[in-house]
Design goal:
The chain is an alpha+beta fold and 354 residues long. It is 41% helix and 21% strand. Bound molecules: 3,4-dihydroxyphenylalanine.
């Protein structure tokens, strides 16, 4: 029995991995292992011998099992140590100096706009890019015969002949999200809705897909004065130029009454655009007091609530702020352009303090 013990203790100690250890275990204390064979021999012994040998054999079995368990734990520890050594990573290493990717100016500007309006208590609402013509037009007080439908160069989704479901369109503006937001939360409400919109148009300042941000604020006593303050506050923070000058020009939209378009004062000198000075004006958004019919379409009682809305071109204000001359370049995926105009991943959205 002492020979058995020595033999297996040595073999266990020398087992190099889990498989080798399991082989030793089977040979020693497995069903057909040497210890089991010895156990079987007990049957042939006299009762006295059995009483002396039985406990010794059991103790040997226990001892071998304990040695196997200890070796197993040691092997696992060693394996873990080896893995930790191998997978070690110095997280304090400096990042690569050459930027691999960059944040697209549209994403950056969307973040900036969202951050500024968040400071004024606006949350972000979303809606689908494929919309029913009800949300895109009717709910916004643009009925079927209205010229605004034709003006918008709408992309209609194809319908098979005989398919009488209401037509779907690629949304031509973010205004349908106004209705979705009203339906989702009711009044009072303060939200902006940035997103992609589509119109069949293509030149230096138009692309078939572009980006807008819609804003709405609904409460019991919201007025044009609130609209004006919010937009001025936004422009000051966004453009980071002192003396930003806005001009509110009377206009017409079916979904607002009264309506105003907002221009920003600028100068073009030697081909460079300067904001806040000069005698030129650049239109940046449409706005107004939400039409009672639009509130109604969104399930809000116009006798109780009123509010303002505006819609602004994200690409347009990105071009102005970062001096990007051609809108089409935004969507060309030209790596050199992206490296030049892109932003570093960790660059926080620029924001005016105070
Ligand atoms: N939806 C308009 C457009 O795309 C922009 C707009 C004008 C949005 C006035 C508004 C608004 O919310 O009040 O041309």
């Amino acid at each position: 029995m002492d020979d058995l013990r020595d033999k297996y203790v040595t073999r266990i100690r020398d087992a190099a991995d889990a498989d080798a250890l399991e082989a030793v275990r089977l040979a020693a204390v497995g069903k057909k292992g040497e210890v089991a064979l010895k156990m079987r021999e007990l049957g042939k012994m006299s009762p006295e011998e059995r009483q002396a040998e039985g406990p010794k054999l059991n103790a040997l079995k226990d001892e071998i099992n304990a040695a196997i368990a200890a070796r197993k734990a040691a092997l696992e520890d060693a394996a873990l140590d080896a893995r930790l050594r191998e997978e070690w990573l110095d997280v304090t290493l400096p990042t690569r100096t050459r930027r691999q990717g960059s944040i697209h100016p549209i994403s950056q500007v969307t973040e900036e706009v969202t951050a500024i309006f968040a400071d004024m208590g606006f949350s972000v609402a979303e809606g689908p890019q494929i919309e029913t013509d009800w949300y895109n037009f009717d709910a916004l007080n643009i009925p079927g015969h209205h010229p605004a439908r034709a003006e918008m160069d709408t992309f209609y989704m194809h319908r098979a002949e005989g398919d009488n479901r209401p037509p779907h369109v690629l949304r031509t503006h973010t205004s349908p999200v106004q209705i979705k937001a009203m339906e989702a939360t009711g009044a009072p409400l303060r939200a902006i809705c940035p997103g992609r919109v589509y119109r069949a148009d293509y030149d230096q300042t138009h692309t078939p897909m572009f980006n807008q941000v819609e804003g709405i604020a609904i409460d019991r006593d919201i007025s044009m004065a609130n609209l004006k303050w919010c937009l001025e506050e936004f422009c000051r923070a966004f453009f980071e130029v002192d003396g930003i000058d806005l001009r509110f020009r009377a206009s017409h939209f079916p979904f607002t009454e009264p309506s105003a378009e907002v221009d920003i004062r600028c100068s073009w000198e030697g081909g460079t655009l300067k904001l806040g000075e000069g005698d030129d004006w650049l239109e940046i958004l449409g706005s107004g007091m939400i039409h009672p019919k639009v509130l109604q379409a969104g399930g809000i009682d116009p006798e109780q609530w009123q509010g303002f809305a505006f819609g602004m071109g994200i690409d347009r204000i990105a071009m102005l702020k970062y001096g990007i001359p051609d809108l089409r370049a935004f969507f060309d995926s030209d790596l050199r352009w992206l490296r030049h105009y892109g932003f570093a991943a960790l660059q926080a959205p620029a924001r005016h303090a105070g």
